[in-house]
Request: fold
Amino acid sequence: MRGDSSVAEQSVIVERVVEDTDKEKKKKRRSNRRSKHNSASTSVNEARTEPSDSLKSEDKAKSMTSSMSSSSKQPGLEITSNEQIPNRASDVAFSSMPTMHVNEQVGSGFDDTSVGHGGRTFSKSCSEPIAYVGSSKMCIDGCLPFNHLEGFARKKLFAPYWPIEAVNEALEKGEAFKALFRVNAHNRLEAYCKIDGVPTDILINGVSSQNRAVEGDIVVIKVDPLELWTKMKGSNWSSNNSAPIEDCNLVQEVNGVAANSYKGKGKVDADCEYADCRSGILIGQGLYDETQVTKPAGYNHVNGHHQSSSDSMHMGLFPEKNEGINSVDRLAVMTSQFPSKRPTGRVVAIVEKSLRRDAVVGFLNVKQWFSYRELNRKDAKRSSIIFDHEYVTLTPNDPRFPKMIVFVRDLPDCIKRRLEDGDVTIEMELLAAQIEDWSAESPYPQACVSHSFGWGGELEPQISAILYQNAIQCADFPPQVLSCLPTIPWEIPPEEYQTRKDLRDLCVFTIDPSTASDLDDALSVEKLSKDSFRVGVHITDVSYFVLPNTALDIEARIRSTSVYLLQKKIEMLPSLLSEKLGSLNPGVDRLAFSVFWELNSTGDVLDHWIGRTVIRSCCKLSYKHAQDIIQGTIDVEKFNASEGGYPQLHGQFEWADVIRSVKYLHEISKTLKEKRFNDGALQLESSKLVYVFDEDGVPYDSRPSEWMDSNFLVEEFMLLANMTAAEVISRAFPDSALLRRHPEPNMRKLKEFEAFCRKHGLAVDASSSGQFHQSLEKIREKLKDDSVLFDILISYASKPMQLATYFCSGELKDNLNSWAHYGLAVPIYTHFTSPLRRYPDIVVHRTLAAVIEAEELYMKQRGLLEGNKGEEVFRRCFTGIYFDKEAAASPRGKEALSNAALKHGIPSPELLADVASYCNKRKLASRYAEEACEKLYMWVLLKKKEVYIFFLLCYLYYIRLPFLDLYFGSYD
Reply:
């Protein structure tokens, strides 16, 4: 019966379409006889049909498309033949916008794309011109003439933003939320906002709901009532939402999605998730009515009706219900009660515009402009008049950004001249643009071209564009920055030897990649007894050179992090500091922060010491050198360093001392690692590729890389040093310590992973990070003969993980549980060990210096620092393993801590919170740049190895390289 009903419905649809077609043809003929041509500014959004309730999914979309193709209610627009009709209604409006995505599905059955130089894809849908009534010219590719753009669509397509007073009031009452706006790179019409405390991200679905927000904006959103929430993906229904929708459907989507998707049925259908709209059109009920009154608390700008009290009560976000529970907690409870529902919402204001708006990289589309100019060439006078209103479009490389309108009058003179000369190769130029405006009347933002990188098919312009759009500072350091550093040759001032612990007689060495030139950490070990060792980690004291609020400090803060590309390093600090003055090069005296632990055979810390020191490294080992020592391939008696390519030794130490130390450290690191995982740590290792380059810097081969025991050796002691530093600074400065946290994973995604594993006969317990790790280790053993499948599982397991972030301790002083680091399973953590390449480490160094100095001041005042013979007393009230709370809370302790903080430039909690937030953004941008360059090099390699493309793609899919949406990476 269902099949018969479907056939009957389809026949009714066909009859209706034919009937509507005949009626519309008659109307157009009558209209042409009795009226003159209407203005081109008439909105194409009037050309719409009333959809039947019986239309569903693909049939519905196809029927709508067919109906739109056969009839039009737009006065003044006449289609000359069916072959010239656009396959989308929106093509009538802005079909000069070419196809952005190569994987979109087009309703028509013909190929509508052509590949240009360098693999660029351009649209050639409806390439034949369409007659435009009201002008002797033609409407190119279904687009309104360029000179009519300024008068087009004057009605509002978007809801106006709430005034600041209404925003503040709504935020205070919990009726709206501030969040970061993130766009799905595979479907730009899907965006998400994360509200702290709510386990599920809020879906902002569709252009009208997104309301002109772009990737990276800080927005204010209004959460929809529960009955409008959509089904969670994978919740007993299937939908292919991965393919993006043609941008030309934006006008229809803006006008009609809200009306069609908010029908008051108590839920949002899968249809409204845009699952079945890629082949057709969503027909709306009209434009936004600007005469309606804006009422932020109860008015819905999207669908144009006031929310009833039942809506508000059902939502559970208002004071009338669940009094005593804040709005975030109520929303969290609701998402937990309805796990199959995805909360939805809409943007009502943009409070902070993304910096990415100023660095959108893409290509211009000028072929249609050339065609239009050619048609207007005969009317030279008219052509000169309309030149100011002509535009071309820009297609961003980043699929998260919409296509943009660029007025010809605003183009740089060099590009404008090339346009006038008919130079089609402009489309091959990789350009940068700034979003200048996006009015409520325009379906697309207006942009201005700001920079040209060169030929888009070449490697260097692409790398330059990646750095530009991620705001990576790659210019040389200015003179005022370099003037902050001492000139070379430079020696440590004598007073530093007097105030620091002298460790130059200790066997200290570095272990780094063979190509490393910025050596910021070193190791040492001493055997105290049969079962105890003293291990030292020594970190270069960069804070000695980078003083607060100097030009060097400001530059380092702006850059925030070094960026390591495969063939290039963009440094946070000048090379004079990072590779000479501050690098722990062997054989030279260097200033350092040192941490010592006394460890027993089970890895327990019996005591620790932290302070400022002077060290002298005896050698620079590579990971390969250390690995050879660990594996015992070196015979100490027969060892000849010169024959094996080993580094030169400096000072009084022999290779036997170095080899013995490396072996001690290896055994201790294994104990620490085992203890850490027994305590609940989680490790998700993902395979990476190492590229092999020719003399021109072009990759020609690759191989998988694996971590060696020597890598894990260094990692264990760096982790321990970071934990110790975090403990010391947070106890002394509980409100102004820069820490690093890693939230618990997305529980919904984690449960999906558990279900996936169960389905394939693999047991996973993700109740805690420790249980999760143990489960994965058992799976690793079970799949030891199928490493590819295990790599897939690790990739899938990484998806629920959230990003680790910096924060100021004062921000979360009332919620100490949120300080924890999920991946490491520790209650407190920070970054201390890489001050040459991370600005937060410099801030932590300053804080440590303040704690050390405050301790010395306090102990001097109490007469505890020096004994009768001048020997240092080992009792440490602020930096020791036991913290003296009474001393810190005493008037003398408070005064000492306050004076030391002022001297070393410790920021206030408010300023430190801003520094943490900025560093988070820069760290994320640097990672995006690194991953984008890896992706670029991979495509270059694939192009050179076309024979193996299939196999490489399969391999990449299995191992899920970081640039393939793997957001976990190194979570420390």
About this structure: The mean pLDDT is 76.
